[in-house]
Design goal:
With about 100 residues, the protein is mainly alpha-helical. The protein folds into 2 domains: about 40 residues; about 70 residues, no CATH class. Helices cover about 80% and strands about 0% of the residues. It is built from 4 helices and no strands. It is extended, with a radius of gyration of 21 Å.
Length: about 100
Amino acid sequence: MDNHLTQQTPEFSDNKQTANLLWNYVQNLHPETISQLSKPNSEVSQIMERNLNSILGNLPPEHFGVTVTTTRENLGQLLISAMMNGYFLNNVEKRMELEKTLSCE
Protein backbone atom coordinates (compact mmCIF):
# COMPACT_ATOMS: atom_id res chain seq x y z
CA MET A 1 0.00 0.00 0.00
CA ASP A 2 2.88 2.38 0.72
CA ASN A 3 4.10 1.79 -2.83
CA HIS A 4 0.71 2.93 -4.19
CA LEU A 5 0.86 6.16 -2.16
CA THR A 6 4.46 6.77 -3.18
CA GLN A 7 3.52 6.48 -6.84
CA GLN A 8 0.84 9.17 -6.43
CA THR A 9 3.03 11.60 -4.52
CA PRO A 10 5.02 12.92 -7.54
CA GLU A 11 1.77 13.76 -9.31
CA PHE A 12 0.62 15.85 -6.38
CA SER A 13 4.02 17.43 -5.89
CA ASP A 14 4.15 18.37 -9.59
CA ASN A 15 0.80 20.14 -9.28
CA LYS A 16 1.95 21.79 -6.08
CA GLN A 17 5.22 22.83 -7.72
CA THR A 18 3.31 24.36 -10.66
CA ALA A 19 1.06 26.24 -8.26
CA ASN A 20 4.12 27.42 -6.35
CA LEU A 21 5.73 28.68 -9.56
CA LEU A 22 2.61 30.71 -10.32
CA TRP A 23 2.43 31.99 -6.73
CA ASN A 24 6.13 32.91 -6.82
CA TYR A 25 5.59 34.75 -10.10
CA VAL A 26 2.64 36.71 -8.63
CA GLN A 27 4.62 37.54 -5.50
CA ASN A 28 7.49 38.89 -7.59
CA LEU A 29 5.31 41.20 -9.67
CA HIS A 30 5.76 44.89 -9.08
CA PRO A 31 2.86 46.38 -7.04
CA GLU A 32 2.10 48.81 -9.89
CA THR A 33 1.72 45.88 -12.30
CA ILE A 34 -0.63 44.08 -9.90
CA SER A 35 -2.66 47.26 -9.54
CA GLN A 36 -2.92 47.62 -13.32
CA LEU A 37 -3.93 43.96 -13.77
CA SER A 38 -6.58 44.30 -11.05
CA LYS A 39 -8.46 47.14 -12.72
CA PRO A 40 -11.19 45.93 -15.05
CA ASN A 41 -12.05 47.86 -18.17
CA SER A 42 -15.17 50.02 -17.68
CA GLU A 43 -16.98 48.08 -20.43
CA VAL A 44 -16.16 44.79 -18.69
CA SER A 45 -17.41 46.22 -15.38
CA GLN A 46 -20.68 47.31 -16.99
CA ILE A 47 -21.23 43.90 -18.59
CA MET A 48 -20.52 42.12 -15.30
CA GLU A 49 -22.81 44.49 -13.41
CA ARG A 50 -25.63 43.85 -15.89
CA ASN A 51 -25.06 40.11 -15.57
CA LEU A 52 -25.19 40.20 -11.76
CA ASN A 53 -28.27 42.43 -11.87
CA SER A 54 -30.01 39.93 -14.12
CA ILE A 55 -29.15 37.12 -11.70
CA LEU A 56 -30.10 38.97 -8.51
CA GLY A 57 -32.93 41.06 -9.88
CA ASN A 58 -32.89 44.51 -11.35
CA LEU A 59 -34.61 46.70 -8.77
CA PRO A 60 -33.33 50.28 -8.58
CA PRO A 61 -31.53 50.65 -5.22
CA GLU A 62 -32.77 54.22 -4.74
CA HIS A 63 -36.39 52.99 -4.51
CA PHE A 64 -36.00 49.56 -2.88
CA GLY A 65 -34.11 48.15 0.08
CA VAL A 66 -33.11 44.81 -1.39
CA THR A 67 -31.87 42.01 0.84
CA VAL A 68 -30.72 38.75 -0.66
CA THR A 69 -30.67 35.60 1.43
CA THR A 70 -28.90 32.51 0.13
CA THR A 71 -26.84 29.54 1.19
CA ARG A 72 -23.09 29.52 1.33
CA GLU A 73 -22.95 27.11 -1.61
CA ASN A 74 -25.18 29.29 -3.80
CA LEU A 75 -23.16 32.39 -2.92
CA GLY A 76 -19.99 30.50 -3.81
CA GLN A 77 -21.48 29.50 -7.16
CA LEU A 78 -22.48 33.12 -7.82
CA LEU A 79 -18.97 34.35 -7.03
CA ILE A 80 -17.40 31.66 -9.20
CA SER A 81 -19.74 32.57 -12.04
CA ALA A 82 -18.87 36.26 -11.71
CA MET A 83 -15.15 35.47 -11.66
CA MET A 84 -15.37 33.20 -14.68
CA ASN A 85 -17.34 35.85 -16.57
CA GLY A 86 -14.64 38.36 -15.68
CA TYR A 87 -11.85 36.09 -16.93
CA PHE A 88 -13.83 35.34 -20.09
CA LEU A 89 -14.50 39.02 -20.79
CA ASN A 90 -10.85 39.86 -20.09
CA ASN A 91 -9.73 37.25 -22.63
CA VAL A 92 -12.29 38.49 -25.18
CA GLU A 93 -11.09 42.06 -24.69
CA LYS A 94 -7.46 41.00 -25.24
CA ARG A 95 -8.46 39.04 -28.33
CA MET A 96 -10.37 42.03 -29.70
CA GLU A 97 -7.32 44.27 -29.15
CA LEU A 98 -5.07 41.71 -30.82
CA GLU A 99 -7.39 41.44 -33.83
CA LYS A 100 -7.48 45.24 -34.13
CA THR A 101 -3.69 45.37 -33.96
CA LEU A 102 -3.26 42.64 -36.58
CA SER A 103 -5.82 44.17 -38.95
CA CYS A 104 -4.03 47.55 -38.85
CA GLU A 105 -0.71 46.12 -40.03
